[in-house]
Amino acid sequence: MASNVTSQSVYPVTREEGDVQEVILAVIVDNEPGVLSRVVGMISARGYNIESLTVAETDVEKHTSRVTIVTRGSPGKIAQIKSQLGRLVPVRRVIDVTSEKDALERELALVKVVNSGENRLEAMRVSDIFRAKALDTTHTSFVFEITGTREKINAFIDLMKPLGLSEVSRTGVLSIRRGGNKD
Length: 183
Prior knowledge:
The chain is an alpha+beta fold and 183 residues long.
């Protein structure tokens, strides 16, 4: 039984029945005006937050795009979201990346660090450990590019906070299957 939780949101926020899980959904859609709005609207109308969203055209000839969505919910609610997404007219296929054993997940982030002295040296040491690339260097700042799992990027950001973290820009999660499987 769901009980209401006090929230500042205009959407009804309820306590979930069962365990809440995070899922990554890859939604293959026709690349036409309004499709993203319909996909996002369907999820948000049910009171779910989209934690990450990436969209790009993936096949020019077929005129299709891939929408990668990260959200949370109970298994029943996630199944409902997948089912309702699959019924939208411009949606060709819904793939639950989380359940795929052969899926890769990555994210890209640009991280600006403003500092001087010993903190500059430490920022460079940390960036080397995380294999982050310095895209821009001035006498007072760095802009690093880092790719990897969300956990890796979050750890890098956490270590950069005391070293002068100034700004972060992230792509959101991207995913693809390994090997010869097609999405």
